[in-house]
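tl;dr need the bound structure. longer version: we got a ligand (tryptophan) that a collaborator sent over and nobodys looked at where it sits. i said id run it. heres the input, straight from their email, havent touched it
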Amino acid sequence: MTRLSGITPSGRVQLGNYLGAIQRWASQGTADDLYFVSDLHAMTSTHNPAMLRALTGEQLAVLIAAGIPAESVFVQSDLTRELGALSWVLECTCTFGEAARMIQFKEKAKGQAGVRLSLLTYPVLMAADILLQGADEVPVGADQRQHVELARTLAKRFNATYGEVFTVPRAVLPPAGARVRDLADPARKMSKSTRDSAGVVFVLDEPELVRRKIRRAVTDDARSVEYDPRRPGPANLLEILAACAGDTPERVAGDYGSYGALKEGVAEAVVETLRPIRERAGGLLDDPAELERVRKAGAARATQRGEHRLHSALRLVGTGH
Ligand code: AMP
Ligand code: TRP
């Protein structure tokens, strides 16, 4: 059983990415899984090449530092040839209407001048990521579910039209409540691309900065500390604490008599959860030769695992050898 997922280097890795995705990938993964930095996906709107390269390195280091075996990790653009070719085959399997129907495309394209064509076709590249590797399960957030559905549709259609090549993948959604909200604006989710980072804890932030951001988290004027999902500020803090402590928000609430004490507790838990990752990632980023070695090995393995499906697909559509 292969599980596969990606993280896009459109910003620095934040606590929500860690608690909502990376931590699970590291703890529930098997040796067959693949996790990758989807740098090609970070180019669907205006981007800065030097920043993209730096963020890609940082995310690769964080995935490994978080405990995902280096053998399971790679950078998407190291498979550009395979993915580019398969993407084309899948574009020839997908209709324009199917791509144009994607909610994320409609939302992101709205009111934007000079929308890149890749914003429309990116879910097809995502299908290529998934189908090239024969992934059975794809852990993603709810916003990516429709894209995994498209990959399912394309896999079935290709198999029925040309011959069985692709595994039909299934989206796996995180459990309810696994969504970390912005500390400064708990109405929205914590995101690496939010412009104002006051409410976003980055995985590589210094401990003092983490503490400061958490102390300034928005709460409300209730006196007691109780877990109530209808009170998003305090509920978010309790959910973060519970995720760090491997406990439930209801139970951790009982340990605190005031928001001040709760914030100190959350700050300590987050700092201690992130400390080993920050240290290990820092070590890797300080050793570019080692990071490069891991990256090359990951690329070779992922290419080798996937290329036979690309060759079969090319042959079946009447191209290649
Ligand atoms: P993204 O940051 O959109 O590239 O997402 C990468 C992964 O992190 C996906 O699996 C998301 O569901 C997860 N993720 C991103 N932000 C959050 C958040 N605030 N809370 C929980 N999970 C998140
Ligand atoms: N598009 C996903 C996101 O923005 C990341 C991603 C790229 C991905 N390719 C993937 C996730 C393949 C799962 C499978 O979050």
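gonna send this back to them w/ a short note. The first helix runs from residue 15 to 28.
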